[in-house]
């Protein structure tokens, strides 16, 4: 599908679907506390269903997503809030196999975006991941050593296999 073909539709298809969603909506009055006490940091990849892959549903968990599923400053802000104010006592950091952020170099990402945009993208940083497991270990350390993550919070790292659905622990 070309970019224009989807832009021509506007948001009508999605808003129509939303009206159907409202008909079956049963979460009115939810307080925003993560009922299962879980927070998940993962990639924006469309192959990942972060709640479904660990048997959870809306209301159960805090989900923080970005390209690569990295723990940066905004993820840490979310996790500090989640562990103190939103009932979270277990955090999963979940990068995945065949991630574009780990299979392209920074230069390649800039070239591909530049080619799509038809303009220079060399000034933008995408934070390509050189070694996924090493990056995950660094991200786990950032969470575990953060002075404001609530004490006693369990922090686990897992690589999600987008072809089997399996989580592989990384320590
Ligand atoms: Zn990814």
TrEMBL record:
The protein's matches in CDD domains, at most eight in alphabetical order, are given as: beta_CA_cladeD
Instruction: List required co-factors.
Output: Zn(2+)
SMART domains noted in UniProt? Pro_CA
User: Where are its TM segments located?
Assistant: none
Establish whether keyword Zinc is in the entry: yes
Give the keywords, sorted: Metal-binding, Zinc
**Record's family?**
Belongs to the beta-class carbonic anhydrase family.
Designated name of the protein: carbonic anhydrase
